[in-house]
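Batch manifest, entry 17 of 40.
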Amino acid sequence: MVDLKKRSGIQQRQATPRPKPVVDKRPRFSVFYKQGLFLFIVTLLVNFNTLTLGYALDDTLMITQNKITQKGISGIPEIWSHDLFLGYFGKSGVEAGGRFRPMSQTIFALQVQFFGSKPAVGHFFNVLFYTITCLMLFFLLSKIFPPDEKKSFIYSLPFVSALLYALHPLHVEAVANIKSLDEVLAMFFSLATTLWIIKYYDRKRILNLVLGGLAFFLALTSKENALTFLAVIPLSLFYLKKDTKQILIGTIPLLVVAVIYYLIRSAALGPVQQIAPVDNFLTNPFFGASFMEKMATILMSWLKYMQLMVFPYPLTTDYYPAMIPVTNWMNLWVSLSFLFYSGLGIFALWKLPKRNQAAFGILFFFITFSVVSNLFVNLGTPVNDRFVFMPLAGFCLAFAYLLTVVLPSKIKPASQKNVVMIVLVVFGLGFAMQTFSRNLDWKDDFTLFKHDITVSENSARCNVMTGKTYYEEAGNLKDSLQKKEFLDKAVVYLNQGLKIYQGYYLAWGLLGVIEMDKQNYRTSLDYFVKCLEIEPTQSVALANLSFIGRKMLEKNDREGCVQSFRQLRHFAPKNPDSYLVMAEVFYKHNKADSAIILVDQLLKIDAKNAVAWRMKGEINANFFHDELTAEACFLKSFEIDPNDVAVLDNLGVNAFHKKDFSKSLLYFNKAVSLDPANPHFLQNVASTYSAMGNAEKMNEYLQRAQQAQAMKK
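Output type: structure tokens
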């Protein structure tokens, strides 16, 4: 048979094959998914015991005592338009620069709305978000560094990295402290942003870019340190071999989102800093240090972070001064820290062009650590576990690289698997046990500080807060011996805090309260004065000065009373108690001239003080026998406060003396209507009816007065 196509020179064209969609060829339940499931279960198991914990530390600030959070859904508009401290302190600008983290507070408000203030609910959501965050880290690392599924899981860099991250004890504060959901959410949404941006390049769908932008906005409104992902995401795209144009396409929309976030934040907080930062030993870990000493101390804190990341024991929530004292460059450890971190940076930059996995981890750490390192912004404490919630992902990747790549290369093939497995089990199991145990320390403030003081014995803050919790616990005890034991411990810790830092006004105030409760008013007076010398506006100490002054008056300690109110007048010149009580003391001791001077001084400060006008009337009536001036003062007091029974009584007596019985009856009856069980007022009504010749009414009110007197007995 003749081939006509060949004879005619016709060549058969082959159809161009259509590109096939990328299909995930992994089995339905591949090693990848098994590793993800294992990670999910282990993370839950290690952290499930947090569901038994209560509220602790700053949970009061964000949840239990935050009036806006407690409004539930109706408070959400306020959450997104105000400083987060508004609901607790009643005003914005309490912290320099303000705080705007509405995402976590919104979740707390929803929890309150649907479940009430139940700590177990808060802990459940913290664990849930944390577990998903660990899975997302695993997914992201698997995208950037796809593992060989034919090899054992112990050689899977993404899996080992995510496992170490999930089990690491430094995350306890972020997970077990409900308030720290902001840390978890910032990482959660930042990882989601990165995954959506990568997905945009895989699918070429604008929707993925939009979702990435939305996730980034939610990350920023969780906590500001999500801004560091503006550098992490380009780094991730570089490792995925994207060119400069592709990296810019993935990053520029996020810059726009960051600008939008800044505008919303500025509208909520105001563009101008509302309060100057307080610079003292407690708020500045580098207080009194030169620039070079500050840099040296920062390097010491970085060395502490590295120790905690490798060997996270013992743990504490408190590294406040003087846990890491100010040091200088003569300290050998400072030089070691400088050389170590410089070496890491040089290695990462050297290996970056080759897209080395360890270099990615190191750069991820440096980028996210930069904003919590104290190098650019003074955070008020040199070290804090939750500050490395993001950076720890980079550390775990670099550490996993040592375990899965470097370590096997140094061991004979026959022993590789066993050695790597043993090292991984030691670290994994050690981390898990420490995390599970440390979770329980976060049961409540008392449990937390009772443990942490054993680690942070050099911290002024930890000593004082431990003393405070012992005092608060003592108030809940019925056993007098145990109560005394707790109060004695409170005093020991408070004094230890003052030994470290004499300027700790809270410690002086608490010592004053303890002595006040013991009725040692003279001693408590000294403590409150020391508290106010440091912080003259401390409202609790001012109120306590007034309280102990009155108590000393009741105990006939006139000198102590006068001393207390003189101090109150010194620190709070406009406080009416300091004038009124001292005037009362002089009044009772027949020093009317001194009393009237104090009352007139108060009326110059506050011309609408009804009590001052009443007292001035009483002094004029009883000592100077100036009925006209007294009546004018009583009427002025009545005009300001028509429900003051004492002034009604005085006006009634004044009218009675003038034989204006109808007016006298008017005032006495109103006093009775406000205080119907007062036998004195009932007796006055009876006396007025007697003077008016109304025996029936007189007897009625006399009988009521006698009944009221009997009830009092």
